[in-house]
Amino acid sequence: METEAIKALAAGIAMGFGAIGPAVGEGYVAGRALEAIGRNPEAADKITPLMFVTMAICESTGIYSLVIALIVIFG
């Protein structure tokens, strides 16, 4: 019973710390992309796809922490 509680706590900590970086990174990327589009609206067609690719790369670290949390819970 105590082992399950420790696993749940460890998984929560892994997800908590693992989600901070991607959240900050994605917010920064989106803010800078919108700022660039605001300065040069004609470049929106080039900036938007690059923004989504960069946000997907940032999100991958959050997915890694989810995988580790699932391994801790079910492994």
Written account of the structure:
- This protein has 75 residues and is an all-alpha fold.
- It has a single domain (2-74), classed as F1F0 ATP synthase subunit C (F1FO ATP Synthase).
- It has helices at 2-39, 44-74.
- The longest helix has 38 residues, at 2-39.
- The model has no long low-confidence stretch (mean pLDDT 93).
Q: What's the short story on this structure?
A:
The chain has helices spanning 2-39, 44-74. By secondary structure, the protein is mostly helical. It has one domain (2-74): F1F0 ATP synthase subunit C (F1FO ATP Synthase, Up-down Bundle), CATH 1.20.20.10.
Please outline the helices and strands:
Elements: H1 2-39, H2 44-74
Q: Report the major sheet.
A: none
Enumerate the spans where pLDDT stays under 50 for 5 or more consecutive residues: none
Helix content estimate: over 70%
Order of secondary-structure elements: HH
CATH architecture, by name, is Up-down Bundle
CATH class membership:
Mainly Alpha
Whole-number mean pLDDT: 93
Number of DSSP strands? 0
Radius of gyration: 17 Å
What is the distance, rounded to the nearest whole angstrom, between the alpha carbons of the first and last residues? 16 Å
CATH topology: F1FO ATP Synthase
- Shape descriptor reads rod-shaped
